[in-house]
Amino acid sequence: MLSLTDAELVEERAGDPLLTLTRAQETDLPASAKISHVVAAGDYRQAVAEARRLTGASGRVARAELPIVLEPESASQIADAWLFETWAARERALFKLPPSALAVEPGDMVSIAAGEASLLVRVTEIGERGLREVEGVGIDPEVYVAPVPRPRDVEEGGLVFDGVPVIAFLDLPLLRGDEPAEAGYVAAFQLPWPGGVALYGSPEDVGFELRTRVTAPAVMGVTLDDLPSGPLAVLDRAARVRVEIGSGTLASVTRAQLLAGANAAAIRNDDGGWEVIQFETATLVGDLTYELSGLLRGQGGTEREMRDPVPAGAPFVLLGSEVARVGLTAGEVGLPLRWRYGPVTRDIADRSYASATHAFTGRGLAPLSPAHVRSERASDGDLTLSWTRRTRIGGDNWEAADVPLSEETERYEIDILDGASVVRTILSAAPSCSYAAAEQTADFGGPQGAISIAIHQMSAARGRGTPKFATV
Fold this sequence. Notes:
Elements: E1 2-5, E2 19-23, E3 30-39, E4 46-52, E5 60-70, H1 72-88, E6 91-97, E7 109-114, E8 117-129, E9 131-138, E10 166-170, E11 184-189, E12 197-202, E13 209-214, E14 220-223, E15 241-245, H2 255-259, E16 264-268, E17 274-286, E18 289-299, E19 315-318, E20 324-326, E21 337-343, E22 354-358, E23 371-377, E24 383-388, E25 412-418, E26 421-428, E27 432-435, H3 437-444, E28 452-459, E29 463-464, E30 468-471
Parallel strand pairs: 1-7, 3-5
Antiparallel strand pairs: 2-6, 3-4, 6-9, 7-8, 8-9, 10-11, 11-20, 12-13, 12-21, 14-15, 14-19, 15-18, 16-17, 16-19, 17-18, 21-22, 23-24, 24-27, 25-26, 25-28, 28-29, 28-30
């Protein structure tokens, strides 16, 4: 190793710096390094050795697949050296030496003492232009003498993989109104984050096409408490639910932010439907565990998904910008598609990719349930029903006399219920209908004092919308 001082460095022109140092951004460097290799023992199975930095803001992963046989201890030491050598080499040095300094060659380690600072670099390039222009990268010899880590266990008879992302397919309503109504959504999470998750789709097990990329990990978790059915259109001050997330944070918002749409999240019920909720307060009560309160339930017309209590253990997804949109054609709505998903840096055939089958329902096409159901009974027993129409799109204009229709035509189907059975369906082209006394007699044997109904607004693309159940 050669030692240089600032007195031995030269400048080409007066005023030029003797030594120029640059440092790479932390976010451009890997947070972990994974090396795939063949295990020397145990029938030459494949394994993965991983080294990871415990601090830093980077989420990148460096990967290498070595077609060589290694002991687990050796593979772990190589992964450690590779990762920490990359971080040591983030420092780059540029300096000039006189033509007489022929002893310095590429590959040499050079210690430079400039003032009170000292830097150890490995020479990578030398340019000859009279003066010798030398480039080098920082080096830390301690990287190569690190203690050997404990070998990781390899299960007998199986392969060791480095994991696949966890994803959630989301059928969501229109939350802002400017989204494509047919679209589906997907959220993904993996630790460490692989830099992005690619989602490929196909109607069969071949011919997969890239449908979307998830560029950031979503805040995902599970509920720790049973979530009862809640009130609609009012702030639920009584219900509280704890949520344990995999990473990230949840935060409280002001009342104005809440009413403007902040802190929207989706919780999946036992039937696979996603209820959209909002929460005003998030209180940290444990490691990655929050208690949510000040709830708005059944948002976006998802009140049907909360009709029954949701037991603890339900999937939870924060509906932030990390949730990616999946573009669908009208013909793909309701079609069970095959999906392949995995790190964007890997090929679709790589073992880090997983498969799933899911049919997006085009939830954004479904009309919302009507509101304010009323009834008026005539002296002859005829019953007149009326209600107020809601809209999927453009319903926040308080100055308009009525909300936009958002459908091709205005049509309704009203089911007359006897318990869970439908005894009659009435069609209507206006937000009202009549249920005559003679029809009541035919359905129930006589006029009824109370009748259970379900009102559906109709969509040309989706059919029945979310029902409004009422007893009149």
